[in-house]
Structure formats: C-alpha cells, structure tokens
C-alpha cells in the first residue's frame, strides 16, 4: 500500500498549494498511518502545525484543505472526515483494497516489485573458525545472515554470501605440528584420513603445546614455514581446513544454507598493501614496536586515544588487518555497494574501529554503506551460557537432532520411546534388557542400569537415522528389518487414526526434521536480534504463540481450507481470469489491509535488517485470518462471497509461504 500513502501525500500537497500557496517542508510526513484503526487507515495532521503560520484555527485550515483535495481520490478512499481540533482521517475504500488484492492474485511475487536500482551487496555471515567449535553464536549468524540475504535477493539485489572463515592464524602452527606427530603419513593418505572430532583434536594439540617448550618452538617454526608458502605445510593446512569444511557443510546442508567460502587466508596477498597505503596516508604510527592507527572516539583507561594494531612488532598481522584488506577487496574487486557483517554484539567495537580506519583512509566511497549487524547472546534456560546437561558446549549437530526428535515426539507422538527401544534391541542384538544391563559395572539398582543402557543405545541409534534417511543405502543390513518393522507399525498407527492421513515413517521423520529445524530458525529470527535470547526447546516447539510449529500449522490449515473450496486459483491465474473480491465485513477488510502490507514490511526489513518484523507480520497475519475465519464462513458462504473469501484464504496461504521462505523456512503441505 505504499502507493496509497504516496497518492494521499500528493493530494494533500496539492491542496496545501491551492488553498494557501504553501508546500510541505515539515520533518513529519504530511500523511501518516493512523494510530488508531477506528479512526481510519491514514491521517493528515498538518492543520495543527500550520495554525501559527496562517493565524487561523486548525479546524478552519483543515476544512479548507478538504475543499481543495483533487476530485479523483474517490476510488482510493472514503470521503475524508474532520475530527477533534483539526485532524483529517482517511479510510481506504474497500473497492481500492479489492482492486489491489486482485492484482496480487495474479502475481507470484505478491505485489513485491523488484527494486528499481539493484545494489551489489556482500553479506558476511556464519564465518566459523577452522578446527574450533562452531558454536551457537555462529548458528545465529548463519540463520540471521541467510534470511537477510534471501530478502535482499528476493528484492532483486545482487548478493554475495561470503563465509569469512577463520582459516589463518598462529594456531595452525600448533595444529600442523600436532598432525605431523600423530599422523606422520597424513599427507600421503589425505583422502582416507578422518581426524574425527576436530575440536577434540584442537584441545589435544593445545595440551601438547602448553606442556612442551620444544613443541612450541616447532609450532612457531611451522607458522613461519606455512606463511612462506612451503609446500608440505600448506598441504597439512589444507588437510585441516578440508576436515573442518566437511563438518561445516553437514550443517549448512541440513539448514539449507548457501555460502561462498572466502576465508581469511584469501586476503593474505593484500595485507602488506594495507600497511603501505595507511602509511602513505600518514595514518600509521609506531607504538611499542607495532604499527598502529590511533582511533578517534575510542580511548584507553588513561583517557588517551586507543590504537588499532595493524602490524605487530614481530611483523604479524591481526584480525582487523584482514578485515581492512577484505573491505578494500570487496569494494574495488567485488564492486559491493553495501557491506553487511553479521556477528555477535561483542564484536561491535572491532567493526566500528576498522570501519573508521577504512573511512579515514579514503577507501570507502560515499556511495558505499558499511553495516555491522550485531546480535545478542544465546542463553540456556538458566539465563547462563547455553551448555549441555554435563556442562559441555553443545555441538550444533546435536542441537538440531534434539530439536528434530522433540518435534517428532511433541507433535506426532508417533515414534515413541518404546519404538526406539524395540529398534535398538534388534539393531544391537539385545533379547533381554535386564540381562544385558546386569553386566554393566557399578552399584546402581538394576532398573537404573536398564534405563541407562536403553537411553544411551537409543540415543546412539537416533543419531544414525538422519544419515539413513538421507541415504537409505547406508542403512546397515542388521537395521533394515527392524526399521521396516517400525515403519509398518507406524503406518498402522496412522491409518487407524481417522483425522490424519496415513503417512510412512520416512515422511514423518522428514517432516519432524523440517519442523525441528524451522523451530530453531524461527526462534532465533522472531526475536529482535539485538537482545539476548533464551534457547528453549519447549518454547520453540510449542504449537501456541509466535513459533515455527504455529506458523507451519497455520499455513497447513489455511491451505487446507482453500484446497477444500475446490477453486483452482492457479488455473485462473494462468488464464488471466479475474476474481471479484467483495470486502464488506470489518474482519475481511482488516485481513485485506494486512495482506497488502507485505511489501512495506519486506522493504523495511531490507532497510533495518530486523527479520523479527517479518515474523511479527506473519504471526499477525495468521491471527487476522483466524479472526476472519471465526466470524465469516468461507466454505458455507453463498456465491459470490464464497469465491471471494476463498481467494482471501488462498492469498493468506501464499503470503505465509512466501514470507516463511524469506526466513529460510519451507512449509509442509500436511501436518
Ligand atoms: N571468525 C569470526 C568469529 O568466529 C567471525 C568473522 C566475522 N566476519 C568478519 N569479516 N570479521 O568470531
């Protein structure tokens, strides 16, 4: 409805000019959205502000404005009304709303026009560090970054999704040295080598490093050789990166995230130029042997300007140096006009600082925007840092698995604990749990031991299933008959229940995976990113409230209603036939107006990069639909109302689907 407010603004400007010879220069827009929907959709409050200048009563001014409005507004809004001391209330005409919506129905983009002047945008997101933990902060960056990229892409911008992985730095000396120690022949069998848990590998390497000065010396030597480009060291480094990459990719695949890797190492050849060019601009100063830029607006404890170290006294470079080289590269080589960086708020100073240096160096033309998009912490339900029950950091894969399995048991209740136990007993060849458990060492009661054995084996088994689902060829022969048995049991269970379609095991597990992953994404995106958020499986998987399951369910329901109506809108759309919308009831009008807000909301998110606004919009949309559906019969309505309302349902479903897709969430057709 951007068009509506633009037309109204023009109309009032016209009136101002013709009535008083004025044009509007006030900071507040001439026409604004109405605060209270009872008073209409928009209002013009100009008369109040003009009273002093014109030396007239505001009501009198307002009424002259009304007299001078252009006559062709009739198709846009009802006759404007004068209220209170001089407000002018404007209510959009239902015919106008109907026409606008009718146009949406024939448009796959639902009225969101591709941007007139597309930009080249770099979105720098996810960006984990090689051989280190990819933690929930990286997950947040991944989810938020992907959504922002999707929205910008949808609007027609050219987006470069960059994964600025931490693949360079002194830690590689230690890792390479340790790799040589434990796998002397690593390089010759690089393809076959599986270092397993790289995080554990990192920890062990660190232990070696901390405990042995000789190892430390070797590690330092290895860094130097790596930086000099020595072939063996480079290969070892490459091998470590590849192992990490494989791990990261599993996660990106599961979350359906597309990224181009361009790690820190990529900018190595450009680091020296950062130093020379800053020097040439007279920005570099030496401080305790290091080359620094003294920052404006940042001071240290003694109140002196804080330095940003560009090159250390030993000649090494910093995180910030790489980012400076990257900014230049992205502007000069990628021709980016907007650079968006998505990291936790803890890095805000880092970004403010190197942005400043890049700007002072003259590397950022006026036409280029640099934006850090910060987000808050992910906390456990205890308000502290998110951890596993045993106090370890959570592996992201485990986190997604857990969301998935809980989605299954919460929403479908299909695969029950007993089912898993049955499968486990077959897969692990256990006929009698008590006998098996009795063999476990320890003094606890037998019941506890049985429980322990069952939970650990079923958990171990459940971890396998995502892999099996993706690639059925990998199901071990021993598990095949039991999985098959489970599948049959479930099929039976489904076909016995009347209200739901029978679906097979695989579909259910896949659907619950979609729901679980969507829940994790949506929980993150629906919060204002700048605040911390509490990670709670129970909340994110709840069918009540602003959650993914609620939204997915809303879609299924609306879609179901519109499907039951038996009107093939796709066909109408393809043949270019028009549907007549009749908007009479207040709730119909409210839904129609909300549907028309999609473009404004998406554009706002592209501007302020707050995807939670889109979540809120979609949540309100499903609520408005529910209110409408409660009061206005659809399937039982008479024609032409029936088709008109079915179209509203269809547009609602399509809006939900498109909106969710911009959040990186795909809908289910059944639930
Ligand atoms: N690797 C960094 C980290 O894990 C994030 C990098 C963000 N991007 C950037 N251009 N600095 O904290």
UniProtKB/TrEMBL annotation:
Its EC number(s)? 6.1.1.19
In what residue span(s) does the DALR anticodon binding domain sit?
551-671
Listed InterPro entries: aa-tRNA-synth_I_CS, Arg-tRNA-ligase, Arg-tRNA-synth_N, Arg-tRNA-synth_N_sf, ArgRS_core, DALR_anticod-bd, Rossmann-like_a/b/a_fold, tRNAsynth_Ia_anticodon-bd
Q: Does the keyword Nucleotide-binding apply?
A: yes
- Highest taxon above the source species: Bacteria
The protein's GO terms of the molecular function aspect are: arginine-tRNA ligase activity; ATP binding
Q: Which Pfam families match?
A: Arg_tRNA_synt_N, DALR_1, tRNA-synt_1d
Q: Keyword set for this entry?
A: Aminoacyl-tRNA synthetase, ATP-binding, Cytoplasm, Ligase, Nucleotide-binding, Protein biosynthesis
How is the subunit organization of this protein annotated in UniProt? Answer: Monomer.
User: What is the protein name for this chain?
Assistant: Arginine--tRNA ligase
Organism source for this protein?
A: Prochlorothrix hollandica PCC 9006 = CALU 1027
């Amino acid at each position: 409805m951007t068009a509506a407010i633009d037309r109204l603004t023009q109309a009032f400007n016209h009136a101002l000019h013709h009535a008083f010879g004025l044009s509007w220069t006030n900071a507040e827009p001439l026409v604004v959205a109405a605060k209270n929907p009872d008073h209409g959709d928009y209002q013009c409050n100009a008369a109040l502000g003009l009273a002093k200048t014109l030396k007239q009563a505001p009501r009198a001014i307002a009424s002259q404005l009304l007299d001078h409005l252009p006559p062709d507004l009739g198709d846009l809004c009802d006759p404007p009304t004068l209220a209170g001391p001089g407000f002018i209330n404007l209510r959009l005409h239902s015919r106008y709303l109907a026409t606008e919506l009718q146009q949406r129905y024939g448009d796959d983009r639902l009225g969101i026009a591709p941007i007139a002047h597309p930009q080249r945008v770099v979105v720098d997101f996810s960006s984990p560090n090689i051989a280190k933990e990819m933690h929930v902060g990286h997950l947040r960056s991944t989810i938020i970054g992907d959504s922002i990229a999707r929205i910008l892409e949808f609007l027609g911008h050219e987006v470069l999704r960059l994964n600025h992985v931490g693949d360079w730095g002194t830690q590689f000396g230690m890792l390479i040295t340790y790799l040589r120690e434990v796998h002397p022949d690593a390089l010759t069998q690089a393809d076959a080598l599986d270092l397993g848990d790289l995080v554990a590998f990192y920890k062990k390497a660190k232990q070696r490093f901390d405990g042995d000065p000789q190892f430390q010396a070797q590690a330092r030597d290895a860094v130097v050789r790596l930086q000099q480009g020595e072939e063996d060291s480079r290969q070892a480094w490459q091998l470590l990166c590849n192992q990490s990459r494989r791990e990261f990719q599993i996660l990106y695949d599961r979350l359906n995230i597309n990224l181009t890797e361009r790690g820190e190492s990529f900018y190595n050849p450009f680091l020296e130029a950062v130093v020379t060019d800053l020097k040439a601009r007279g920005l570099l100063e030496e401080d305790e042997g290091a080359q620094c830029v003294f920052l404006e607006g940042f001071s240290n404890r003694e109140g002196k300007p804080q330095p940003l170290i560009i090159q250390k006294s030993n000649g090494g470079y910093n995180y910030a140096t790489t980012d400076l080289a990257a900014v230049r590269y992205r502007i000069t080589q990628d021709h980016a006009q907007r650079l968006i960086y998505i990291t936790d708020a803890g890095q805000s100073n880092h970004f403010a600082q190197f942005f400043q240096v890049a700007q002072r160096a003259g590397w950022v033309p006026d036409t280029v925007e640099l934006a850090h998009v910060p987000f808050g912490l992910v906390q456990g339900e205890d308000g502290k840092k998110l951890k596993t029950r045993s106090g370890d950091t959570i592996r992201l894969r485990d986190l997604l698995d857990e969301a998935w399995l809980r989605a299954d048991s919460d929403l479908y209740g299909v695969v029950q604990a007993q089912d898993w136990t049955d499968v486990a007993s077959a897969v692990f060849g256990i006929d009698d749990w008590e006998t098996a458990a009795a063999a476990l060492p320890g003094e606890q009661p037998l019941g506890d031991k049985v429980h322990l054995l069952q939970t650990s084996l079923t958990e171990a088994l459940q971890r396998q299933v995502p892999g099996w689902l993706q690639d059925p060829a990998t199901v071990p022969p021993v598990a095949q008959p039991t999985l098959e048995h489970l599948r049959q049991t479930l099929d039976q269970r489904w076909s016995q229940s009347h209200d739901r379609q029978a679906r097979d095991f695989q579909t259910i597990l896949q659907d619950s995976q979609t729901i679980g992953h969507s829940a994790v994404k949506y929980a993150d995106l629906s919060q204002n990113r700048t605040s911390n958020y509490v990670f709670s499986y129970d909340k994110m998987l709840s069918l009540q409230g602003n959650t993914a399951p609620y939204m997915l369910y809303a879609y299924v329901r609306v879609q179901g209603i519109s499907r039951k109506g038996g009107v093939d809108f796709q066909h109408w759309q393809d043949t270019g036939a028009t549907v007549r919308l009749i908007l009479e009831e207040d709730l119909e009008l409210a839904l129609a107006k909300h549907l028309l807000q999609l473009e404004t909301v998406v554009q706002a998110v592209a501007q302020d990069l707050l995807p939670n606004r889109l979540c809120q919009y979609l949540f309100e949309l499903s609520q408005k639909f529910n209110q409408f559906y409660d009061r206005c019969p659809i399937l039982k309505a008479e024609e032409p109302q029936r088709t008109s309302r079915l179209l509203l349902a269809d547009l609602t479903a399509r809006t939900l689907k498109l909106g969710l897709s911009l959040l990186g969430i795909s809908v289910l057709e059944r639930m």
